[in-house]
Structures are given as structure tokens and as C-alpha cells.
Amino acid sequence: MNASLVIKELRQWDVGTVLENEPLSRHTSFRIGGPASVYVQPHSEEHLVRLLDWVYSHQIPYFILGQGTNILVSDRGFEAVVISTSRALRYVRVERERIEAGSGVLLTKLAHKAHQAGLQGLEFAVSIPGTLGGALVMNAGAHGSEMRNLVEQISIWEPGTGVRILRGNEAGFDYRQSQFMMHQWIALRAVMKLAVGDMPVILNNMRHFMDYRKRTQPVGNANAGSVFKNPQPNYAGRLIESIGAKGWYVGDAMVSPVHANFIVNRGSASACDVLILMRRIRCHVFQRHNILLRPEVRWIGPGEGGTEGTWENLWYREGGGLQAPCE
Predict the structure, then answer these.
(1) What are phi and psi of 165, to 5 degrees?
(2) For 75, 115, 123, 208, which has the most beta carbons within 10 A of its beta carbon?
(3) pLDDT tens across 91-145, in order?
(4) CATH number assigned to the domain covering 3-84
(5) Counting Cβ atoms within 10 Å, is residue 115 exposed (0-12), middle (13-18) or buried (19+)?
(6) Alpha-carbon distance 31 to 114, whole Å?
(7) Catalytic site residues?
(8) In whole angstroms, what is the distance from residue 44 CA to residue 85 CA?
(9) Residue 33: which of 279, 272, 308 has the closest Cα?
């Protein structure tokens, strides 16, 4: 990809903000990540769709970035067009018991909008950092609720097809995954069906969930959320705590003393620091419990994606197979 030519073309369109070699550490909750060769923030959904059609037709690699939570970006950056949804897809519309929202809307904002409309069902989302788009991809959930319980329909962009509508049950929602991970679908907006509720009760539940998050998670420290999936019926945090990993660190990457399934960036952690620490945790948990932890955080880097197979290749490529030393 010739980044200079791509940037020249996109600036002629006036699709939005276009930057070259933009550090992704500025756009991720981990505050980690090398430069994106091209970074674009489209003005509107129309500009976003046009941009997606263009990069696909020209076989240019691309990546959709929401709030930058739940991802670990390579220190080498990303040789691709990174497309931010933070401006184009941040609208919310309420009609009776349904909410339609763009995938760039923050989940906390969405929960508050539901409360203001007297609708219950989204209270759990107030404690989840990130955007609606990321929540759809991961089937985000907390406190016994998940996105799949609410989503009625999703408007997606599909390579070679364009914009089309999915019913909620066509998204293949499962524990922390969906069909978005198996296809190159991009969520543009979703319709969620809620229920009329009592506003004081809804607000009380939201406050309870936020207070719980503040007590049990490293709020205020740069992190990417839960690092490993829960190997049900176990909990990754409990398994990691059982090996005494709280406080372990590599460089400025540290296992949170508050919650063992969180790695925090104490200031200048690199992606490599995080990978080494994840490998160490994974190896010790396997040795102690014979349980293989699977990453929940997505790896974004040259030649990589968010699949578990890619993670496995990454462990071995970095010399971190299960037969390798844990230290």
C-alpha cells in the first residue's frame, strides 16, 4: 500500500480527517500501539460506507477502530487504513421501547439515554468501556446480561455486497463472540428492544454497577479490559490470582493488584511487554490447573487479526509455546 497516494486521494474527497503515521497509542485505552500508516475519521455514515467500498475495491487493508478498548496494537503499528467511527456513527434515536444507535456510540452514553427514556435492559452496559460496535462484535456482557438479549436488528457493511440488514439471531452471538469475528462484517448501527421500567430503579441499578466496577476493576489505569476469556465454569481472574500473579510486571506492563485478569500500563508499556506477561500467566495457569487460557483482548498488528489461531501462532513465533519456559 502506498500510504501517500491513499492519503492524497482521500483528502481530495474531503471524507473527514485524514492523518499519516498516526500513533495508535493515542486512540487505544491501553495507550499502546505503533503508527497507523493512514488514519481516517469520516464525517458521516455515508462517507464511511463510501470509504469502505473504496478500500475494498482497491484491495487496501483496513481496520475499524471504535473507542480502542479490548485491543492490543503491535509496537510496529499497522500498515493499513485505520478508520475511526467516533464521529460518523454516534447518533441515538429512541422510539417507544426501541433504541437505534450508531456503532460509534459509547455504551455508557447508550445506557444513560435508555434511562432518560424510562427504558430498562441496558443498565449493565454503563459499566462497560467501549462502543456499541465493539460490544456487538464481542457480544459484550456484565452482571448476567449480554447484548444478544437486546439486539433486534443490525445494519452492517459487507465486502462486495454493501449495506444490508441482519436479524439479531443471524449475528451468531455466543459467549464473547459473534459471526462478526468469522466474517468481514462492519456494524453500522443496531436496533435494541428494551422494556418500560421505573426510572429511579433503573438509575439505582446503574449506580450499583458503576460502584461495583470501581471497587473491583483498575478504573483510572490504562488497560484493555479483561485480558483472558473465562474458561467456564471457572473465572480467569481467580485462576490467575491462584498462581500469585497479582503485581507481576514486565517493563511497565503489570498484572493489576485490583483484578488479576487486567493488565495495566503504568506509563510506557510496550505491546511486547504485555505479550511476555500474558505468555507467563498463561503458562503458569496451564502448569497449575491444566487449563489453557484464551485471550479476550484482540491482537492488532502486521499479518495478525483477532483470531485464537493467530494468537497461537504469535505465542510460538515469539518463543512462547507451552513447552517453553514460563519465565
Answers:
(1) -110, 135
(2) 123
(3) 999 999 999 999 999 999 999 999 999 999 999 999 888 899 999 998 988 888 9
(4) 3.30.43.10
(5) buried
(6) 30
(7) 176, 226, 296
(8) 9
(9) 272
In the chain, where the domains are located:
3-84, 92-213, 222-317
What's the pTM? 0.86
